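name: query_chain
kind: protein
chains: 1
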Amino acid sequence: MDPLSPQPTRGRAAISNLTSRFERESRVRVDDGWGADGGLPEKLRTIVMADTARSIISRNDSPDVPFDSSVNPYRGCEHGCVYCFARPSHAYLGLSPGLDFETQLFAKRDAAALLAKELRSRSYVCKPLALGANTDPYQPIEREEGITRQVLEVCRAFNQPVSIITKSATVLRDLDILAPMAADGLVQVAMSITSLDRDLARTMEPRACTPPKRLAAVRDLSAAGVPVAVLTSPMIPALNDHEMEAILEAAAGAGAVSASYILLRLPLEIAGLFEEWLRAHYPDRADRVLSLVRQSRDGALYRSDFGTRMKGTGAYAELLRSRFRLASKRLGLDRRRWDMDCSRFRVPDAPVRQLSLF
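structure:
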């Protein structure tokens, strides 16, 4: 029996669902000659499961990011961005970084309680937390789960500074928390805008907000006094890189105060998933895109070295770096801000539990 070529699934970015790299056996779809391919349904349903984490603050020592502590309310992400660097983490759960990452999600429903416990610890030293450094804290299931809002309520109670990374206008739901925190220098939002082209954005990020909604969110957050940075990430050679200046201009016009970018990263399974997606949706430019990626990664599709993994090396990477530097300076977006006020941190009184009469 011959293996079947995977086909795009409506509303999802990943095309295949290859077995986790840690599994001893692999799943392969084949045609058994009975007329049904036994493949994936036309529309995949999202399944949300409970994640019983024992702690909620993750720490890193990477010199490439401006934070060392983060909170992620969810594993997996329904936005389904094909380029998402978090996809390989689903393999640790015995699931595929492909379609499983977009459809088999885990919600950390004890996140707020765990965070409060860790913030109360005598050993805790206040530093800004990054909310959503791995997967989006405002992905669609947040509307029902509300975990991100619960986490923000804890941050507000402790005066814990927090930076939110998202590509969703759902962040506006929590303006009643964010605006007062911003007034005290305790919060900022980084909005990811990868493209202004609705068709490209929908293909790359099938369940994320449209570009106009993201820009409107930047405008509304800024009007409420919440500092907003724009993330023009990732920049993909010969696909969306020509939009860099236009994205920065649109974001600055909406009130963004700073900006950053990352060159497309393709670690582990993402390389195969991205190439598969690229050849299915943009076959005319696939070879050109991959060639430029290799030119920026010392001949490989990815290099994980600190200092260069975010921006790449070589002539193309240097050109992209120069374009960003000139555009962000011209637009006043070149002052990176991570200066939230940790001096306000306080541990509130624990809630009093009523004693039993008997």
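note: The longest helix spans residues 314-330.
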